[in-house]
Amino acid sequence: MLLDGVHLVSDALGAGVPLHDVVVAADFGMQEDIAPLFDALARARVSVVSASATVMAALSPVRSSSPIVALASRPTCDAARMYDLPAPLVVVAVDIQDPGNLGATVRAAEAAGATGFVAAGACADPFSWKALRGSMGSALRLPVRRIDRVADTIDEAHHYRCRIFATVPRGGVSLFDCNFSGVSAIFIGGEGAGLPADVIERSDVRVTIPMQAPVESLNAAVTAALMLYEARRQRHQTHENTKTTKPKP
């Protein structure tokens, strides 16, 4: 995968992602604020080569080329790493085709304390350069998997006894009336079409986020953030109540 920019290269190092090739702009190495990154690359024994502005413009995919880019191994994980936990909270994105939107959804998942993220069906590649930039490094730390068949993600969640919450634009249980305190998998649909009918049919709970008319839907990343932070609030409240409840004599 391509890591574009200081932030992603630094995050990859911090997450222990193996870096294979690092290229830096020839006039970039003298900047003092980047010295810690070069020190970290040296400690990790990662080879760094310099290149001209023309070469950097060809290597960096953004309009104004980044001063540093790297090639790295994609992180891998199995289902157990995200599900086989005391209280898993997994986000399953289905058919989110915009890589920036997908990356922002991964970022929301990590920020809210999800234990894993699955990109299913016709989703964009969560490790593409644009999705990585959208996730601001979250995809390098949070367990992320890519599964082609959406049905497999449902089977997997049920295998780990997850309660499946499917987001629907209308007619579902209000977000604020759902119980996310247990083992949960939250399914978020893609732009426009939302979740496929078979996912909705196989879900345990259909969830609708209350919206003021005439708004009919929200961005996938916003939807994920709202769902996840309600889950976080409930779980934190449950944890606090458990700590403060005195044992019965």
At CATH level 3, the topology of the largest domain is: Alpha/beta knot
Q: Could you say which structural class the secondary elements and strand pairing correspond to?
A: alpha/beta
Q: Which word captures the global form?
A: elongated
Distance between the first and last residues' Cα: 58 Å
What is the CATH level 1 assignment of the largest domain?
A: Alpha Beta
CATH architect. name of the largest domain: 3-Layer(aba) Sandwich
Detailed description of the structure:
The protein is an alpha/beta fold. It folds into two domains: 2-72, 2-Layer Sandwich (60s Ribosomal Protein L30, Chain: A), CATH 3.30.1330; 79-242, Alpha/beta knot, CATH 3.40.1280. The chain is built from ten helices and eleven strands. It has helices at residues 6-14, 35-43, 53-59, 79-83, 99-112, 129-135, 138-141, 150-159, 197-202, 220-244; strands at 2-4, 19-25, 48-51, 68-72, 89-94, 116-120, 144-147, 163-167, 173-174, 184-189, 205-208. It has a seven-stranded parallel β-sheet, sandwiched between helices. A four-stranded mixed β-sheet has the order 1-4-2-3. Strand 5, helix 5 (99-112) and strand 6 (116-120) form a beta-alpha-beta unit. The radius of gyration is 20 Å and the shape is elongated. The model has no long low-confidence stretch (mean pLDDT 90).
